[in-house]
Amino acid sequence: MSDGIVFIDGKYVRPEEARMSIFDSGFVWGDVVYDVTSAWKRWIFKIDEHLERFHQSIEGFRLVSPYSVDEMRRIIAECVERAGLEDAYIKMQMTRGVIPSQTRDPRLGDCQFVAYATPYAWIWGEEKCRNGVNLYLSSIERVSSKAIDQRFKNYDRADLVQSRFEAYDHGCDDSLLCGPDGNLTEGPGYNVFVVRAGKVSTPDSNILEGITRRSVRELCETEGIPYEERKVHPDELNEAEEIFCSTTAGGVMPVTQLDSRLIGNGHKGILTSRIQELYWRKREEGWHGTRVEDVLNG
Fold first, then answer.
1. Domain count of the fold of the chain
2. Rounded to two decimals, what is the model's pTM?
3. Which residues contact 286 (CB under 8 A, 6 or more apart)?
């Protein structure tokens, strides 16, 4: 299997050949935005929605892209094509680049675009993503969107990393964080949903508004499953009949334990199973997908 292909400095190279400056502000200052989509059976999922969000993140961080949205669209498809992958994890990132020495003026950066396609990755491994994970409700507070707008997908993730360490220290697989207002936000790279009395609820603020989260909402609406986006207090996790998460790198993922305590009977719930099965069946059928060759030949 191919390790993937990287587009950097205007060239397509193997991952081990990709190089960037240690003085890039994305590395030095964390001044970078990114987005992630996937290809499944060579159908790139919601490519235009991901590119739209990526463009919003670029503008939100006051970066200047050297490529148009249409050019980036073709670049990521070309990465998948050159990598020869059926199922791919696709990432785009934009840094402010190297800022001239003796200045700290971010307006002087030379923004750099990087994209790559690698084999599809499951955030917790396929078995746990499909059958259930043990999450820890962290004491680490999620950075406020008043400080860093979480609608813009970025690498300022120190809070998420520390919460993940805390989860590992308690024997769990990953974490959930609350915001400054005490309400539930998200985990490191995924949105969270609670199910009670047949209704799916998910936090509505201080979060990345995930594309897979939008897909869950669409599936619920299609299936007649009550769905709401609102403030979710962390105590509701203890009252939930089911909990699940969503992300590009795993789709719809059951949570079967919280702080090592079983949720329900310790197996993925009926409603979670229904949404998960529908999500992956539709992905197999090319739902909201664009064929790699259609992008390249368009």
1. 2
2. 0.95
3. 41, 43
